[in-house]
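re: the backbone from monday

yeah here it is again, tokenized this time
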């Protein structure tokens, strides 16, 4: 935003004088300046004259913000900030002070950026995490799943009040009932209070891991992140193409590290017993009931099962 003096000095001398008078009069006649001078009655004409640039910017930015074009198009000197004025006296001298104040949209974006930085997504649409919904909005979307929504909201409230839990949740249900969406809601709410999290879409993540064999440092970094993050969601577990390495050295290692330390969450179309059968068979080694039971012993005791009912919402607005 150009200052008043810069605008006026760019004009021819005769026009400069005329435009200056018009600009100054407009500023002095503005209701905002009247209110300012009423609040600080000691502000005299001399102080106004030598601080005209500040007054002009104050008025101009107020008008801009009153018809906000959005953060991306904010023309103010500091994006997402507006000028506020105050005044003081010192030894009979009057001083007018300006302060840059963040607007509500800028503050909201900062909060959203902070939330986004705390949650890692692996093959899950990041908008699932960044969108903010109220409990009431989610509850009213599908009353058939109201019981599940209330249990998740209770979990969120308990965690906010008492800190990170050691038990997680296991959401089971049919396709499209919103299990991933509900986990995104939980992650968003808890990221607001500073918790970190990750959500992993297992079918695609399992394929990704194969490519990391050539990058052992990246593989270790990814697994360590999933071990240490406050909240971990394995999304659509049971739908991945299972192999012994993925089961024993990735999923098994992660849940083994987290049990009794940090909560792990799961969404699945399988009930727990059916997931055990899934873990008991791989295309490479066939039926390995003991290994399926072993990994389930690291999952089953550390989750509360929530059945998510409702209609299939995929493809609906």
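seq for it, each position gets an aa:
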């Amino acid at each position: 935003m150009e200052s008043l003096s810069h605008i006026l000095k760019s004009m021819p001398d005769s026009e400069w004088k005329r435009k200056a008078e018009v600009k100054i009069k407009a500023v002095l006649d503005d209701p905002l300046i009247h209110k300012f001078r009423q609040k600080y009655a000691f502000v005299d004409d001399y102080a106004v004259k030598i601080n005209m640039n500040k007054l002009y910017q104050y008025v101009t930015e107020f008008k801009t913000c009153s018809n906000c074009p959005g953060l991306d198009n904010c023309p103010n000197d500091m994006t997402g900030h507006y000028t506020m004025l105050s005044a003081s006296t010192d030894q009979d001298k009057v001083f007018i002070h300006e302060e840059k104040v963040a607007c509500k949209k800028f503050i909201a974006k900062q909060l959203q950026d902070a939330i986004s930085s705390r949650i890692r997504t692996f093959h899950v649409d990041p908008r699932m995490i960044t969108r903010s919904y109220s409990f009431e909005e989610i509850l009213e979307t599908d009353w058939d799943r109201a019981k599940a929504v209330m249990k998740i909201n209770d979990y969120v409230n308990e965690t906010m009040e008492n800190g990170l839990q050691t038990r997680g949740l296991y959401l089971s249900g049919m396709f499209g009932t919103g299990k991933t969406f509900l986990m995104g809601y939980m992650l968003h709410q808890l990221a607001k209070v500073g918790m970190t999290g990750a959500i992993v879409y297992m079918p695609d993540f399992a394929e990704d891991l194969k490519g990391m064999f050539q990058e052992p440092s990246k593989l270790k970094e990814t697994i360590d992140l999933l071990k240490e993050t406050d909240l971990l969601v394995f999304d659509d577990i049971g739908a991945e193409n299972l192999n012994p390495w993925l089961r024993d050295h990735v999923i098994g290692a992660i849940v083994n590290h987290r049990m009794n330390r940090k909560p792990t969450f799961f969404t699945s179309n399988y009930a727990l017993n059916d997931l055990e059968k899934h873990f008991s068979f791989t295309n490479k080694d066939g039926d390995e009931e003991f290994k399926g039971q072993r990994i389930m012993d690291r999952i089953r005791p550390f989750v509360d099962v929530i059945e998510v009912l409702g209609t299939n919402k995929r493809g609906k607005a």
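The first helix runs from residue 4 to 9. Strands lie at 81-90, 93-102, 119-122, 168-172, 197-201, 231-235, 264-268, 281-282, 286-287, 303-307.
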